[in-house]
Design a protein that fits this description.
Layout: H1 2-14, H2 22-34, H3 38-50, H4 58-70, H5 74-78
Helix pairs in contact: 1-2, 2-3, 3-4
Amino acid sequence: HLDAQYNYGCCLRDSTGVPQDDREAARFFRRAANKGHAAAQCQLARFFESGRGVPQDDDEAVRLYRRAADQGHPIGQFN
């Protein structure tokens, strides 16, 4: 189910088959991220970094990037 939550978040982010909705995308990314989905952690970190769909919060972005990096995700390691 984690991949489905992440993929639906991407659909909402990109307006793929559903209306674009950053707040709802962030909600689905958060669901997957909280359960350890590294790509969702990176995507949610990007949202926090830019304030897209969530209040801008650099500390939360760093925390999420670190969680993804700890799992070996290259975007998390780069950021």
